[in-house]
Specification:
The chain is an alpha/beta fold. It has one domain: Alpha-Beta Barrel (TIM Barrel), CATH 3.20.20.150. It is 37% helix and 15% strand. The strands form 4 sheets. An 8-stranded parallel sheet has the order 3-2-1-14-11-8-5-4. Strands 6-7 form a two-stranded antiparallel ribbon. α2 packs across α3, α7 packs parallel to α8 and α9 packs across α10. The radius of gyration is 22 Å and the shape is globular. The N terminus is likely disordered. Pfam families: AP_endonuc_2 (PF01261). This is Xylose isomerase-like TIM barrel domain-containing protein.
Length: 381
Amino acid sequence: MMFRHPQADAPVEGHELGRKLGLSRRQLLAATTGMAAAAAVAASTLKPGRAAAAEGVPLIRDSKRGIILFTVRDAISRNPLTSDLPSGFREVFKALSDIGYERVEFAGYTQNANAEGGANLGTVAGAELLRKWLDDNGLRAEGNHGFIPASWPLTQADLDRFKAALEISNILGMDHMGTGSDPTSSNYKADWDVAAAKWNALGEIARSSGYVKLYTHNHDAAYNFLLDSGPLDEQGRPTRSSGVRKLEYFLGITDPKFVNLEMDIFWAHVAQYKFTTYTAPDGSTQTNVFNPLALVQAQEGRYPLFHAKDGASNTSTANGYDMVPFGTGAIDYTGFFRGLTSGHHYPMYEQDNAPGNATTAPNQSLEYAKISYDNMAALRA
């Protein structure tokens, strides 16, 4: 069994009572300082998203609102010796906590070499330091886009590296560990069969190492149609589809106990825009418009995490959308989250193009993080 850090399940100070009462850390603070004092504080300090809480039930509770650190990678990699803006993990954690975020998802463990702790925190000692900074700022790590072995069957070197990644996840207190890549980039059923066997095995290793659930993060290609039928090409591969989408097939042949998904809702809507027809076994063209919400609803328990990435409609581009801060685009997030029956998902705000020009907009990614947090908080049932 993998080592689990003794602090991995330790609550941030004051959290245990809050969890028992169903309160977030901020709600607990208000309750324990008296109703009159809490009202006075709320009137002067609540951010726009929090102020709107009285207007209805939030679709995403404050304890579930998260961000993947890839969105603010420019701040994490910023040199603290040349900038007064938040730089490195520790300062960025504080900035995100001040905005209101309570969950973060890592995209690796490297930062500027001049930031506290040095360049690489992807070690046991580095993870312990990261865990302290998370706890200091009332943050919880929910996942990481890290190492998933490409080889199958596993080499001993890949297995050792995978177990080391699980060790880091357990020290950080993560319930989930994943990757930013599809299980396979192939269009063919045989390759997805191999990918499913690998992920079932890796997922079982992950669960046996502690409490880590393995997840795959997907872009639009995984929602294209699987080539699984029809005439074979010169290499003996099928050329037509039965109409099942690649990720749907993967879900059907993997074990729900060991394999989970993180839907990037933006890329799922890109797939809805791009992949509307397929060639059936008889050669006819069939139309099938993808419904991201319906896919989630079919096995909602397998989606512990989402990437909450918004897009402005732009049909002049191949994807049909341009990435924008959450809540400023065309994707119907109110309808999406209203369609879920569980409140146990963690939507992680992501925006690939959030970092701004280092000269003209050096703090843009954190400014977008603030806009996006407020818009996540404003979603109402």
